[in-house]
Design a protein that fits this description.
The longest helix is centred in the last third of the chain and has 82 residues. It is flat, with a radius of gyration of 35 Å. It contains 24 helices and no strands. With about 600 residues, it is an all-alpha fold.
């Protein structure tokens, strides 16, 4: 009997062994096929990314990531995660970029791949630099440098030195920035990396120029120029020409400045690089202005600003120089128009910077939360992987000892029960995390709304002050013209009267009031509605006056903004109080602040 049972066990073991061999062969070819699929997805994603089609690129990267994870190709999966992080970094989505960079780094650390680890640290350093967290950024670049030295990879070490130098330059620590730029320069010289040499020389020259050390700056600009000429890279050569043009303009050497800027303009025109072309034209226009060639300055500046406007670039300095150029040419109307454009672009740039600053602060907060939660997420995924491995091991053992199925059923049930308990615990943990994330999201939304209201108030007051300053300026000119008219002859008096009419039109520009109305309604959206509901017979002029009084402006400021006399403003306030049935002991401003 025992012999028969033993024979059955041996035969069963032989069948199961053959099944295991067949299973392993199937897994080998299946894994190889999935790797090819993953590589194709990754290549398609790279093509879409280079074309700027980031949405499609991310979709293909996700497919590649799933495929590589299923085939257990962890290093390739880490490369995909890193590429996804770079896309989000280019889109200024710092939270997602941080998540994918850290995911990639954790895999690379587990594989102990020093080169890939150095790349991840470099990307995290660039991310921290974007967020303005310079100590953290330098820390990551130093870690990347350490791994590059471990691999004796001189090129990547030089790149790390250069990245650290950029951070110190942004902090105006030019001496320390140069130390790292020189380290990068020595390595690039040894490796004969000519294109990188041009950038290194330009960076060093820029630090000297910012410190007003002209001789040293000139020396390194010329070295950058010589190397760019050797390699024949047109874009690098154009940038060096532009640098030299601006440098010689500061030294008031007009001919040399104009010559270099014309060369830069010609190169960027041939390359169809319109962004650098517009900046080169504006720089050339400023040189013409500084050298007293105002007609040429006008022509070049107008072309440069038109090109910048087409490309969506904000060029505040260009409008300022063009306004000054028209003033020198005696065209005060166009000088004033370009001054307004300069003011408008300055306000736009101010608002953009404020918005970007708020977004940056929010991203820093979310990024810190993300860093704190990454450790928890990784632990959770490791636990899931361990559970999956245990389950796989369990199934393999079940296959090999199938003859004893009846004895193992109890163990299987117990094991499944344990897995269910762990899964329920994970679900509860995830639900808690989601609830916490919702609370944090609501808090961030409230903070964002508060900051948005502050920005709207700033924009309203900025525009109101702009109107007030403009009208004050025009009133002063108008008074001066009245005095001047007394001393002039009749023909000259006629011209002065024309100018006075232009000024009167400037004082009553409806566009100013429409812009003010826009900012006011953005800040106090319910003011007019609530006021009209209670006092339906208010005229448009009294509604305007109500808005200005609501801002707690003085009677003199209101009269200047509306372009009427102080007495007329006082009478208008009296009519408004009468329409509002307001007693004499009640404050008009306090009463209007109840609305909106």
């Amino acid at each position: 009997m025992l012999t028969i049972i033993w024979g059955i066990i041996i035969k069963t073991w032989g069948i199961l062994s053959k099944l295991c061999i067949v299973t392993n062969i199937f897994r080998y070819y299946s894994t190889r096929y999935m790797n090819e699929v993953g590589i194709n997805y990754n290549n398609l994603a790279l093509i879409y990314s280079r074309k700027g089609a980031y949405k499609k690129a991310l979709a293909h990267y996700q497919s590649a990531l799933r495929t590589f994870r299923q085939s257990d190709q962890l290093l390739r999966a880490s490369h995909v995660l890193n590429n996804m992080g770079l896309i989000y970094l280019n889109q200024s989505n710092y939270l997602q970029a941080a998540y994918y960079f850290n995911e990639s780094l954790q895999i690379r650390k587990s594989l102990d791949d020093a080169f890939s680890i150095a790349v991840s640290y470099t990307n995290l350093g660039l991310l921290e630099t974007r967020l303005g967290r310079y100590p953290e950024a330098i820390g990551y670049h130093l870690k990347a440098l350490k791994h590059s030295k471990k691999l004796n990879n001189q090129y990547r070490a030089a790149s790390s030195y250069n990245n650290i130098g950029v951070i110190y330059q942004e902090q105006n620590n030019f001496g320390l920035a140069r130390q790292y730029y020189f380290k990068a320069l020595r390595i690039f010289t040894q490796l004969e990396q000519k294109l990188e040499l041009v950038e290194a020389y330009r960076d060093i020259a820029a630090t000297y120029d910012l410190e007003s050390k002209s001789d040293s700056a000139q020396q390194y600009f010329k070295q950058a120029f010589e190397v760019a000429q050797q390699i024949g890279d047109q874009k690098s050569l154009g940038l060096v020409y532009k640098d030299l043009g601006i440098f010689y303009r500061k030294k008031k050497q007009c001919n040399q400045s104009q010559e270099y800027l014309h060369q830069a303009k010609a190169i960027f025109t041939s390359l169809k690089n319109y962004r650098h072309l517009s900046s080169s034209q504006i720089a050339l226009g400023q040189t013409y202005y500084d050298c007293g060639e105002y007609q040429k300055a006008q022509h070049v500046l107008e072309k440069g600003l038109e090109l910048a406007k087409k490309k969506g670039d904000i060029e505040t300095s260009g409008y300022s120089i063009l306004s000054a150029t028209y003033a020198k040419l005696g065209d005060y109307q166009k000088a004033y128009e370009n001054h307004l454009l300069f003011k408008a672009t300055t306000d736009s740039l101010f608002n953009r910077k404020n918005t970007r600053k708020i977004a940056q602060l929010e991203e820093q907060y979310r990024f810190q939360l993300q860093k704190d939660s990454i450790r928890v997420v990784n632990q959770r995924e490791k636990a899931m992987l361990e559970i999956e491995k245990e389950r796989q091991t369990f199934l393999n053992y079940l296959l090999l000892v199938g003859i004893f199925v009846l004895m193992i059923i109890g163990g299987v049930i117990a094991r499944q029960y344990q897995l269910r308990l762990r899964k329920n615990q994970l679900i509860q943990t995830q639900q808690k995390a989601l609830h916490q994330a919702d609370l944090e999201k609501k808090q961030m939304q409230e903070a964002h709304l508060t900051k948005e209201l502050e920005l709207k108030n700033q924009s309203l007051m900025s525009h109101t002050l702009h109107i007030l300053q403009k009208n004050n300026f025009l009133q002063e000119i108008k008074i001066s013209l009245k005095e001047l008219k007394k001393t002039k002859e009749s023909n000259e008096q006629k011209e002065l009267i024309k100018i006075q009419k232009i000024i009167d039109r400037g004082l009553g520009i409806e566009k100013d009031w429409k812009n003010f109305q826009y900012y006011f309604e953005e800040t106090h959206p319910r003011f007019y509605k609530e006021l009209n509901e209670q006092f339906a017979d208010l005229s448009p002029n009294l509604l305007r006056l109500s808005a200005l009084v609501r801002l707690n402006l003085s009677t003199q400021d209101i009269s200047n903004i509306l372009g009427i006399s102080y007495r007329s403003t006082t009478m208008a306030r009296y009519r408004l109080r009468k329409k509002l049935n307001l007693e004499t002991d009640k404050n008009l401003c306090s009463f209007l602040m109840q609305f909106g």
